[in-house]
Predict the structure.
Amino acid sequence: MAINTEKEVCNGNIKIIREGSAEKRVLNWMDEQCIGCGICKDVCPVEAIEMGPLGAIFKGLIEAPKLDIDNKKCVLCGICASSCPFNAMDLEIDGNSIKELPQYLKVRKDITLNQETCVLCKQCEIVCPQEAISVERELPERKTLVLGEIYINKDICVLCGICAEYCPADAIDLIKNDLNPLNLNPYGDIVVDTDACVYCKVCEKACPHEAIEVVCYKCPFVKRIKIPELYKEIKGQTTIDKDACVSCSWCEKICPVNAIVVEKPFEGELIIKKDECNGCRACIEVCPCNALTFPKSEGQGLKGPRLVVNPEVCILCGACVNACPAKVLEVKRTKIDTVGSKIPSWENALKKLVN
């Protein structure tokens, strides 16, 4: 049976298929997962991958795929798929992903969460640049913190509405009447939403007719709530989508209880030639980690914008380098974290990422 290599493009995604007598290989590239780092291009032994105009793509100036694969050159070796730290590429051999096969070398990144330590504060969810973290929590009923009673003497109350205006919890409401010659009163009743009321006594103090009485049995002002006891009543779960996670470590850095540990794929530094930066912001738009910024305090000096990077959240992927039209960025990787068998040809390919 003759070997035939075909290329399929669907919704911007690329599929390279080679089917022979011994096996069927399928290389998949997912545009939405790709961050434009160019690692696949750097390691490709046959130069079958070309990057698109990343700066213009991420700034929304044009619609185009982030890369292209030449099926005439591609040998479906899988080095690109195993090297991609962001799961944008995968090689299947007879339907099995090589990422699940121990004999193939892979660039490693990981994130772990201690669910028992996590306090469900949602800070990791808020800062995650890839929206890879979701926090679901079920809080105890409000009466766990505040419990009391409120009584309005409707024989004294004149329905002036002053208490409703003062109420910080919007728990008091006046029920309007349909005005007509037989019913001259604009309001028919006053009601209190006891689920919203915090028994703060503001309404009692504001009422000019002394028609309101409030008793608070369990107020924060009476006795400070013990936070550990409250947390025992909070239920929920934090979920991390490892396919979406880029291991930037924003979550790890801001976690107040050190419940998250992130392992990055690379070590090294990002070098910025600040004096040559023209401030186009292409690097900021493409960065999957929100690691680059122009500090407002510095502004734009005589020699141009002062681009800075936070090395703690930069993953040294190189996407910014590929997007920069002025070529003022350079990634210096000193170490790659890998797992799997030590295949000499693959190790040599990965060495291209270290400089």
About this structure: The longest strand covers residues 329-336. The chain has eleven helices and 23 strands. Residues 142-227 form a domain with the Alpha-Beta Plaits fold (CATH 3.30.70.3270).
